[in-house]
Amino acid sequence: MDTVGELLRQWRHRRRLSQLDLALAADVSARHVSLVETGKSNPSADMVLRLADQLDVPLRERNRLLLAAGFAPRYAERPLTDDALAAAREAVERVLRAHEPYPALAFDRRWNILLANRAIEPFFGQVDPELLRPPVNLLRLGLDPRGFAPMVVNLDDVRTVFGARVRRQLAVSPDPELAALHDELLGTADEEPAHRTSDTGVVIPMIIRIDGRELRLFSTITTFGTPMDITLDEVAIESYYPADAASAAYFTPLPRTAPGAPLSVPFR
């Protein structure tokens, strides 16, 4: 098992910082950072978290650092359905509902879908039911031949964009399961798109062929700004927008739903 010093050194190298860089950012001496990393000084819990904050260590890994230093974990991990996260879940649901009639969904660190709005449902019509059994994985849904892949006109571009996103995520916070999923679905994805299908050069849209027409969609990502729970730290909301008027015309307003009414397919 790695010591807290070894783990901190790994994170420092991952962030490409010197001991002096980290020391200046954390307002401690470079000698103290060196002593902690070599195991010659036992850091307090506050010092572990101060260094972790400057290294932008995810909450899940901060707990691991605390355990390695001999302290109890500081951050809880509860399902999004937990009563303690009711306000946060309601916030996610509001974002998803407000984005209708355009598709939006929330997923976790391994791209497993947690919630989705009703606008996503028409796209499931040609998906193998096996892929819709919980947990429904967005990467697999988008790239597996049994999922959306046959519908995506510019699949090479989409694979490249997904691949870059996952690699950035793994660089920030390594995860063996996500790495295995990347190797399975994106192992041969290019580092950069071979060609760009955007008419404007501003974004690379996903072009989906459905109901005899082609839809051009681009997306944005929303995350919680100051999470103190591991689940919230790892939740991302992806909202899709039409990239042109023809694509916007495909989506029709949906009937209003009462607050608290179910969203789309119960993914969990």
Entry keywords:
12% strand, single chain, 40% helix, 11 helices, alpha+beta, five-stranded antiparallel beta sheet, Beta-Lactamase, 268 residues, 434 Repressor (Amino-terminal Domain)
What is the compact description of this entry?
The chain has eleven helices and five strands, in the order ααααααββαααββαβα.
Account of the protein in words:
- The chain has two domains: 65 residues, Orthogonal Bundle (434 Repressor (Amino-terminal Domain)); 168 residues, 2-Layer Sandwich (Beta-Lactamase), CATH 3.30.450.
- The model has no long low-confidence stretch (mean pLDDT 91).
- A hairpin with a 2-residue loop joins β3 and β4.
- The chain has 268 residues and is of the alpha+beta class.
- The protein has a five-stranded antiparallel beta sheet with strand order 2-1-5-4-3.
- The protein contains eleven helices and five strands; from the N terminus they run ααααααββαααββαβα.
Secondary structure topology:
Elements: H1 4-14, H2 19-26, H3 30-38, H4 45-54, H5 59-68, H6 86-98, E1 104-107, E2 113-116, H7 138-143, H8 155-172, H9 176-186, E3 206-210, E4 213-223, H10 230-234, E5 236-242, H11 245-250
Antiparallel strand pairs: 1-2, 1-5, 3-4, 4-5
Helix pairs in contact: 1-3, 2-3, 2-4, 8-9
Protein name: Helix-turn-helix transcriptional regulator
Organism: Streptomyces coryli
Domain HTH cro/C1-type: 8-62
